Amino acid sequence: MASSSSSSAYSAIRTPPLRFASKPSSDLSLFPSQTSRLFRRTRIPSLRSGDGPKNSSRIGGPITRSDRHRSRISVKSAQVMEPPMPRETSERVSTVVEVDLKDRSYPIYIGSGLLEEPDLLQRHVHGKRVLIVTNTTIAPLYLDKVIHALTHGNPNISVETVILPDGEKYKEMGTLMKVFDKAIETRLDRRSTFVALGGGVIGDMCGFAAAAFLRGVNFIQIPTTLMAQVDSSVGGKTGINHPLGKNLIGAFFQPQCVLIDTDTLNTLPDRELASGIGEVIKYGLIRDAEFFEWQEKNMHALLARDPSALVYAIKRSCENKAEVVSLDEKESGLRATLNLGHTFGHAIETGFGYGQWLHGEAVAAGMVMAVDMSYRLGWIDDSIVKRVLSILQQAKLPTAPPDVMTVEKFKASMAVDKKVADGLLRLILLKGPLGNCVFTGDYDRKALDETLHAFCK
Ligand SMILES: NC(=O)c1ccc[n+]([C@@H]2O[C@H](COP(=O)([O-])OP(=O)(O)OC[C@H]3O[C@@H](n4cnc5c(N)ncnc54)[C@H](O)[C@@H]3O)[C@@H](O)[C@H]2O)c1
Ligand SMILES: [Zn+2]
């Protein structure tokens, strides 16, 4: 049995915080040339090998490969929280973040009104057949708009749609089959493109269907929740739940592009918006202290759905995720740090029943527990604990698990967590100044027990 003290195989993986230029650079270029929209790209300097904390271990992979990979990371984006401009101009500013995965690299377009730019979507459609996967809530709101964007000026495209029932509980095999039924009944071929129109549930299911149908067809993500825009649509994790655990069946499968029209957030319920903000806060905590500070100052603007604040938060979240995914696509280490709070959070989601709490709500309570444990281990000071509580309260997110959660429920769920290896549960914990975390199984079990008892009845 591995013990906490002899777990050299599970030594801490420390994530380097993303370094941002303090000012946007001036390399302004028009993109894409075919559209009237102005995309402003600002190159953010790649991480250099010396940028991480001095005492950190390397982030997986041989040095040369890792260094080469890092130097090619190009995250391009616009500075959107900039001096006030006339509203008409500011609304036209959009941004593009690139996910660098060699031959599977793809752009994330972020901006308001992007669904009114047919060219953006059409350039990424392969073949002439498209299958839009959406649900009963989103279809009446955005399906026509997306069909128009796909077909406008392009009569050769034929579009099929499958409208699934809405809800996390439908992220399962039976519902997935409906996508395959439609694809097979309408004789879609290998050159078809699947389009996910919806939140994380639709994105995960459609992506998995695209990965499996005929052993893989192209797909495009059009995320319509903040959760999906800042997290689930980026990085290629697709899949469905099993009654015994979340996301246990799936595949890594990257999209052709992600198109984020921030206008879709205008119809999103407040609670769903807050759930997405949970993941935004996560990026600040694990690797981007400057972003966390920005959130502390701008939470009211995010909650009020200020378009510039939203675009900025989505952009910066996507940059962080894109960089982590570029460095560790298949989650050999660094990518696991994106799961801060998720081990506790998944336990809440399973223990409480899928759909009772939203994913971001469960993650928020989970982050508080991970932060509490980090503090008990002596790895962070109490100012971080206070700031985390305060920002989550500002975002109107839960800061403790629901009453039904017992220590036993947490332990039962944690035993089947994907981060258990050889019987040892590895966790993402904060360590050092704000914006630093570790993924490790090397911690005092007493701290975990104390945290569980402190948060459960
Ligand atoms: N693949 C990944 O890397 C990853 C990362 C994070 C989360 N996830 C998964 O994502 C899922 C959660 O995603 P979610 O929070 O987007 O939930 P969701 O997909 O269930 O969407 C939330 C609700 O909002 C509705 N909705 C979506 N867009 C809307 C809009 N624009 N206006 C009005 N209503 C709208 C949906 O119909 C649904 O009722 C979970 O299954 C989680 O496991 C995956
Ligand atoms: Zn999550």
Would you give an account of this structure?
Its main location: plastid. It comes from Cinnamomum micranthum f. kanehirae. Residues 162-274 form the 3-dehydroquinate synthase N-terminal domain. Its cofactor is a divalent metal cation; NAD(+). Catalyzes the second step in the shikimate pathway. With 457 residues, the chain is of the alpha/beta class. It folds into two domains: 1-59 and 277-457, Dehydroquinate synthase-like, alpha domain, CATH 1.20.1090.10; 65-75 and 89-268, Rossmann fold (3-Layer(aba) Sandwich). It is 40% helix and 18% strand. The protein is built from 15 helices and 17 strands. The chain has helices at 63-71, 87-92, 118-122, 139-151, 173-185, 200-212, 226-232, 270-287, 289-303, 307-327, 342-352, 359-376, 382-394, 407-415, 445-455; strands at residues 13-14, 38-39, 42-44, 75-77, 93-99, 106-111, 129-135, 158-164, 193-198, 218-223, 237-242, 245-252, 257-261, 420-421, 424-425, 427-430, 437-440. The strands form five sheets. It has an eight-stranded mixed beta sheet with strand order 2-5-6-13-10-9-7-8, sandwiched between helices. It has a three-stranded antiparallel beta sheet with strand order 1-17-16. Helix 8 (270-287) runs antiparallel to helix 9 (289-303) and helix 8 (270-287) crosses helix 10. The longest helix has 21 residues, at 307-327. 49% of the residues are buried. Residues 1-11 and 15-90 have low confidence and may be disordered. Zinc ion binds at residues 231, 279, 342, 359, 363.
Structural category: alpha/beta
User: Might you state the CATH topology name of the largest domain?
Assistant: Dehydroquinate synthase-like, alpha domain
Note poorly predicted spans.
Answer: 1-11, 15-90
CATH superfamily of the largest domain: Dehydroquinate synthase-like - alpha domain
Spatial strand order of the main sheet: 2-5-6-13-10-9-7-8
| Quaternary structure state of the chains depicted | single chain
CATH architecture of the largest domain: Up-down Bundle
> How many DSSP-defined strands?
17
User: Whole-number radius of gyration?
Assistant: 21 Å
Distance between the amino and carboxyl termini? 31 Å
Helicity, as a percent range? 25-40%
> What is the averaged pLDDT score?
82
> Quick one: CATH class of the largest domain?
Mainly Alpha
Shape label: globular
Proportion of beta-strand residues: 15-25%
Query: Biggest sheet, in brief?
Result: 8 strands, mixed
Q: Number of helical segments?
A: 15
Bound molecules: nicotinamide-adenine-dinucleotide, zinc ion
Number of structural domains: 2
Domain 3-dehydroquinate synthase N-terminal: 162-274
Domain 3-dehydroquinate synthase C-terminal: 276-420
Function: Catalyzes the second step in the shikimate pathway.
InterPro entries: Dehydroquinate_synthase, DHQ_synth_AroB, DHQS/DOIS_N, DHQS_C
